[in-house]
Amino acid sequence: MTLPAILYDKAECPFCWRVRMALHRCQVVYEKRDFEAHELEWTRLTPGGTVPVLRLHGLVMHDSSVMLEYLNDAFGALWPLSPEKRAQARTSAIYADTSVGRPVRDLVFQRRDRKPAEWDEAVIANAMQQWHEAMPYLDNALGDRDFFIEGVGITDFILASRFGLALAYGMPSPRSPRLGEWFERMAGRPEFTDTAPEMVIQKLDRGWLS
Ligand SMILES: N[C@@H](CCC(=O)N[C@@H](CS)C(=O)NCC(=O)O)C(=O)O
């Protein structure tokens, strides 16, 4: 008997969120378990003590990139088929995760669960500058396409999780109309809206999109 699929999850973790988007897209039925509420079983499954952890098809995976690769291998269509396009999509995904991920993480760590008086404004200003500096590369990588991967794929999920948290924590709008429109398209998709953390959903109505 196959065990039910379980995702040990933290709502605002960008690594968890991209996996939730991919599971949604692959129409995998799974149970989402908050990692803190299931700490004992979660701890047993993750040597590094991180989320997400995914139990699926008799496997236990504890790194989001392995999960995304597996979902692509098992269900297809999350990466482009052509080796050249796949290499480009992977390059953009790594860039998005580092060059956008770092400043967004710095901003979130300053503002989450802290009063404004406790924020280090120099760290925030630096994060905002790095955020703006990351955009031209991604704007160019997207070009005139609707999504980074035709039909939406892993690069889109990775960047959308970073953009969603950026919006929720007050990062300025990206100075790239094409990336702004890309995010608007992503934020209209069920993979995004059905899996987004509550805080992101609240900001969608009055964020960069309005
Ligand atoms: N390489 C891991 C990184 C996951 C990760 O860093 N998750 C964070 C939450 S966003 C975490 O669990 N950090 C440990 C902690 O919060 O104690 C992956 O892609 O799954």
Observed structural traits:
210 residues, alpha+beta, Glutaredoxin, Glutathione S-transferase Yfyf (Class Pi), Chain A, domain 2, 57% helix, 7% strand, binds glutathione
What name does the CATH topology of the largest domain carry?
A: Glutathione S-transferase Yfyf (Class Pi), Chain A, domain 2
Q: What is the CATH top level name of the largest domain?
A: Mainly Alpha
Category from helices, strands and their pairing? alpha+beta
- Strand segment count: 4
What is the radius of gyration? 17 Å
Unreliable residue runs? none
What does this protein structure show overall?
There is one protein chain. This protein is α+β, with helices and mostly antiparallel strands. It has 2 domains: 6-75, Glutaredoxin (3-Layer(aba) Sandwich); 83-204, Glutathione S-transferase Yfyf (Class Pi), Chain A, domain 2, CATH 1.20.1050.10. The chain has 9 helices and 4 strands. It has helices at residues 14-25, 39-45, 64-75, 83-111, 121-142, 154-168, 177-187, 190-193, 198-204, and strands spanning 6-9, 31-34, 53-56, 59-61. It has a 4-stranded mixed sheet with strand order 2-1-3-4, sandwiched between helices. A hairpin with a 2-residue loop joins strand 3 and strand 4. Helix 1 (14-25) crosses helix 6 and helix 4 (83-111) packs antiparallel against helix 5 (121-142). 37% of the residues are buried. The structure holds glutathione.
List the helices and strands and how they pair.
Blueprint: E1 6-9, H1 14-25, E2 31-34, H2 39-45, E3 53-56, E4 59-61, H3 64-75, H4 83-111, H5 121-142, H6 154-168, H7 177-187, H8 190-193, H9 198-204
Parallel strand pairs: 1-2
Antiparallel strand pairs: 1-3, 3-4
Helix pairs in contact: 1-3, 1-6, 4-5, 4-6, 6-9
Bound molecules: glutathione.
